[in-house]
Amino acid sequence: MEQEEYQDLLEKYKERVKEEFGEASTIPSKVTTKEYSEFKAELYPNHYSLYEKACNFSDNLLKLKVDEVKAIKIQKNLDLTHLNVRPAGVIALSYLLPMAVMVLGSLIAFSIFQMMFFVFFFLIAGMLMIPALQKIPEFMGNTWRMKASNQMVQSIFYLVTYMRHTSNFERAIEFAADHLEPPLSLDFRKIMWDVETERYSTIRESADAYLQVWKEWDKEFVESFHLVESSLFESTEERRLSLLDKALDVILNGTYENMMHYAHSLKSPMTMLHMLGVILPILGLVILPLVVSFMGGDGTSPFVSAIYISVLYNISLPLGVYYLGRTILSKRPAGYGAIDIGEKPGLKKFRNVNINIGKSFVLSVNPLYFSIMIFAVGMLIGFSPLIMHSLNAPDFAFDEKGNMKMLDYVCPPDKGIECAEEDKLGPYGLGSSILSLVVIASLGGSIGLFYALRSKNVIKIRQKTKELEDEFSSALFQLGNRLGDGLPAEIAFSRVAATMRGTVSGDFFNLTEKNITKLGMGLEQAIFDQKVGALVSFPSKVIESSMKVLIESIRKGPRIAAQSLLSMSRYIKEIHRVEERLNDLMADVISSMKSQVKFLTPAIAGIVIGITSMISTILTKLSSQLGAFTASGQAGGAGGFEDMLSIFGIGIPTFHFQIVVGIYIVQIAYILTVLSNGVENGADKLGERYALGKDLTRSTLLYCFLAAVVMILFNLFAGTIMQRTLVG
Hints:
Blueprint: H1 2-21, H2 33-43, H3 46-61, H4 68-80, H5 87-113, H6 116-134, H7 136-149, H8 152-165, H9 169-179, H10 184-196, H11 203-211, H12 219-230, H13 237-265, H14 267-295, H15 302-330, E1 353-357, E2 361-365, H16 367-382, H17 384-390, H18 430-484, H19 489-499, H20 504-517, H21 523-528, H22 534-537, H23 541-554, H24 558-585, H25 587-632, H26 638-647, H27 654-681, H28 685-727
Antiparallel strand pairs: 1-2
């Protein structure tokens, strides 16, 4: 009987709360284990799940005991990234995987190439992998922090906005979890899930346990969160609202200061990155051809020398530069990261190439097909010298004296002038060297074209939306003032639309008003409708969150909505100020990185390839002449020429050397572009694709053009020198 009375009283209380405060203030729905698991499975990164499975498999296979201090450090990062893994599993994987790489890699490489170099390479690589794999949880944790930190200001704003009109902490966290993007939305759902699964008894205990992770990384976020919690215990409404405003001020000022410190501390690691990853490797290319030439004197073939250089320049250096770059990015503090609007259902079609066929039919083609076609054709043209030689095609010269040949396969110095076809080395011809540039142009061009076409249409929409964001704070301020005067939201929208006519903000409000007046939609549908809503034409996270706040707060009355919009207006202004100041502080670093990608690196490398081509031409001619003198034994001086042959090799073909260097140029341009975009804009995938589309194509084509010009000029110069030497 008492239970029935209790249930009746509870239902009456719920109905009264609904009448006085609206639907938003009801008790939040439970987040069950199944719902959280499905949410995690849908939004969790695939490589995180793969790593989780690998660690658990290794843990079952190899039982290890981990040092307690080390285990605590690893567990912090595992908890942050929601990885269901024991620290022992991380350590077990760090031993098993390198052992597999050392054993299998050495055996396979030695069986294919018959060289001890690769055995030592895989042994050293495996040993270096052990500490690297043990730091993977830390690396994942830093990446997670960087992505989450871009949403921290927004998360505090959502909490503050909701708590201003409804002092319900659990409901505020649910509101933030629903409106945030991953990964922070996953963290907020985890807070609620831990309460529902009775890991913690109250939502405050669960939130405090979660905040322990951020104490050493973002103290301002923790302090702001605690201020929001403290507002629950204030006796007066004025003090409660004051604490909420203080929470927002703390996170905004903290973000500004953290970014200033980051910008100042960025110069030293960026200088190191430029020197170790760009300047020194490019300068090393100048002397590398001579080193390879002397290596050839001990019987090492040019192809094997090219493999050595490729292991250094296409594997070791890019991995080192990428690791250093990711370390720099992982320390970026909280900001306001842009989202990839191309992932939205209504905009996915704009990621493809849309060809209008007739008036009503549009053919949508994935840019990947165009890139693959260009790459395949470029590879066929670029490797045509190898194909021609394998088919025993006759060689031909570009000039009547035969100084500049197409293929120019030559005999090694120790074989004399005549040797079997399978013993010949090359191609050393200028034509082959020029055609090798097509390989790099097709590689960098096809990747750049894919990213350019993938982002071209979407970036136009975002640029239009960006114009709206720049003036949206003043529009929100006007809308908040209209609502503060007691006007209904629908009328307030029409007034602001008339006031701001001719601006992008005016277009947004005008579109919303038309949906209300002409289509008979409610305010929420007029803004958020999937087909004709105003947000379809302006897919901005800032605008979307503003309108979500408006819809949520308008249920409490126009004055509450006005306060929320005025707070949102201030929030947008503060974030814009922080981002502008950050860009100003980092202008020197960013411009230096961009100049490296766009001009300096491809230009220096192109000139180096031209020098290499000249050295290769001279060494090839000298080797052939020395071989001729040795074979004829002129004037009893053969012994001296043989000694010279034992010192000099034939040199690496420009064809092979250029391909190795060209691939490195594409790799370093890709890494530096991703890094510069990450430093400047945070976790912005759309901006990253757009930058890659521009920079990869430009830097690759610039490198190929300069390399071709310098190659031709230096080969003409080398040919003239050799003619004069031989005549003299």
